[in-house]
Amino acid sequence: MAISLTLDNKCSRCPGSKCCTYITEALGATPRSKADFEHLLWQVSHQGVSLYKDRSGWYLLIEATCSHLRIDGGCGIYQSRPQICRDYDNRWCEYDEPAEKGFLLHFRNYDELLHYCKKRFKSWGR
Length: 126
Prior knowledge:
With 126 residues, the protein is an alpha+beta fold. The protein has one domain (19-120). The chain contains four helices and four strands; from the N terminus they run αβαββαβα. The chain has a four-stranded antiparallel β-sheet with strand order 1-3-2-4. The radius of gyration is 18 Å and the shape is elongated.
């Protein structure tokens, strides 16, 4: 007999606890200048850091597993977890659909972003 999926048991059914293996940080302002993109090139030069744009703005995506994630996918500090974790809403999450599906732009590394910069700024590298 199959167990029905509910919001209460959805996280325990997620293989790899995907939402606990990365963080995103909003850039705040839309990058516009060459200096903005130079800074972003430096950031995506680091292992586990990529950059994406979706309908709500630009974000750094940092692949880093939460140190409290247990082997079984549960939270090791569930009762005292940070407020951001308490506020997380799993009604629609990566169990349902990969976040990348909503990315308008995604730069996984320096070379991908540099290619974009050269197209965006005709004078790039001169």
